[in-house]
Design a protein that fits this description.
Radius of gyration: 27 Å
Largest sheet: none
Helix content: over 70%
CATH architecture of the largest domain: Alpha Horseshoe
Strand content: under 5%
Mean pLDDT: 90
CATH topology of the largest domain: Serine Threonine Protein Phosphatase 5, Tetratricopeptide repeat
Number of domains: 3
Shape: elongated
Number of helices: 12
Distance between the termini: 67 Å
Oligomer: single chain
Order of helices and strands: HHHHHHHHHHHH
Number of strands: 0
Structural class: mainly alpha
């Protein structure tokens, strides 16, 4: 990029900033910022323009200056929405939860609970080798929404995401079990494989968990446990890769 182009781009940027400043200045003059309605509308303009820090300040002004207005309640919810929009998910989770505690019978209660669950969900890492603790909170709140608001528009997505997170936690349990096995910590690995069978049954992990448990039992010379897991593999999952591997693994 040459100097002339850089200068031109800078001028355009400055002009854009000035235009935005004039726009908001005019908007504020058109609204009575001494009323809850005017101040709320002003805050909403900043939110729509993705000027989130200013929007948070203005919504807080609505809440603090007009505490008895219905818009004070709406401002509280808007603050949570702004945190969510700017991807500050720990803050949005707290804000939505506080709103729910203060307004348990609000008309948007299902939406608020969905956003609490989503705030946890959006904090999940992309890979299972990292901490998935928040997944348990996401599962709980998605499940709560399904239970409390079965007719809600958010139920279908909540079920999908709840099942997705449960599956990821099951994958994590297998991942940890495999890690222990590679480290030759066979007792710990066995507990994890069997824990997978108890916590996450029917999600596609069963053959792998039984196979891993059988290998651990053989290493530990635990013939009873070995026989149990081998028998289940042969009878319930005879066509699985794990059942076919029993012989090659010397089980």
């Amino acid at each position: 990029m040459n100097v002339m182009t850089s200068v031109k781009s800078l001028k355009l940027f400055v002009v854009s900033l000035m235009a935005m400043a004039v726009l908001f200045s005019c908007a504020s003059k058109e609204k009575d910022l001494n009323t809850a309605e005017g101040l709320f509308a002003y805050a909403k303009e900043f939110q729509d323009a993705e000027r989130y820090e200013v929007a948070l300040t203005k919504y807080a002004d609505v809440r603090n200056k007009f505490p008895y207005s219905s818009l004070a309640t709406e401002a509280e919810l808007a603050i949570a929405d702004v945190h969510y929009a700017r991807e500050s998910y720990p803050e949005s989770e707290i804000a939505y939860q506080n709103f729910r505690d203060l307004h348990p019978k609000h008309a948007k209660s299902a939406y608020v609970l969905y956003r609490i669950a989503m705030s946890y969900y959006m904090q999940l890492p992309e890979t299972i080798d990292r901490d998935l603790t928040v997944g348990k909170d996401a599962i709980y709140h998605f499940g709560e929404l399904v239970k409390l608001y079965p007719q809600s528009e958010y139920v279908t997505d909540s079920k999908i995401k709840r099942d997705e997170v449960i599956s990821r936690l099951g994958q994590k349990e297998i991942y940890i079990a495999d890690f222990y096995f590679k480290q030759e910590k066979y007792s710990s690995a066995l507990r994890r494989y069997e824990s997978t069978l108890v916590k996450y049954p029917g999600l596609g992990f069963d053959p792998r968990a039984h196979f891993g448990a059988a290998k651990c039992a053989k290493k530990l010379a635990d013939q009873k446990t070995l026989d149990q897991h081998m028998q289940i593999l042969k009878t319930k999952y005879p066509n699985s890769d794990e059942a076919r591997l029993l012989t090659s693994e010397g089980l």
